[in-house]
Specification:
- This protein is an alpha/beta fold.
- The strands form 2 sheets. It has an 8-stranded mixed β-sheet, with helices on both faces.
- The protein starts with a strand and ends with a strand.
Length: 162
């Protein structure tokens, strides 16, 4: 099962200068709960943004055009199709960014785990692709208010391909 997992603003913004836009402790915990024990695929810039490198308790796959790149604890592929072939036997695979990987992966995805942040950032330079209601159906939504650990109100929404 191929999943895309992302937190996005009301304008589909997902990042600025290779950083997340919002501090949402609950979203990070939700991400960890969903992806632990599974495969995560990300672009090299997304990997570079991780504070501690490869994510523990996950199979980490990084996509890059850079030849000869080696990263401890990470499998490197030059294309999303090659990475998807390599994890064809994995029960759950999560694409976790960035923009180009989400855009390419959307056509192959079975499910989307989106955190809709009820805010629009002043600055953004990376965006999640627009999802079509003709292709995707929301099956679960849970709304949350801002609090001391989550700077904006947000909703966890699961979508499945129609």
């Amino acid at each position: 099962m191929l999943n895309l997992i992302c937190a996005l603003a009301e304008n589909n913004a997902i990042g600025f200068e290779n950083r997340l836009l919002y501090r949402l402790s609950s979203d990070l915990r939700h991400f960890k709960e969903l992806t632990s024990g599974h495969t995560v695929i990300m672009g090299r810039k997304t990997f570079d943004s991780l504070p501690k490198g490869a994510l523990p308790n996950r199979r980490n796959i990084v996509l890059t055009r850079q030849q000869g790149l080696e990263i401890p604890g990470v499998e490197i592929f030059n294309s999303l199709p090659d990475a998807l072939k390599a994890c064809a036997d994995d029960a759950e695979v999560f694409i976790m960014g960035g923009e180009a990987v989400y855009t390419e992966g959307l056509a192959h995805a079975d499910r989307l785990y989106l955190t809709h942040v009820h805010n629009t950032p002043a600055h953004a330079d990376a965006f999640f692709p627009v999802i079509s209601t003709e292709e995707w159906k929301a099956t679960e939504t849970a709304e949350f208010e801002a609090d001391e650990k989550n700077e904006c109100p947000y909703a966890f929404t699961t979508y499945v391909r129609k």
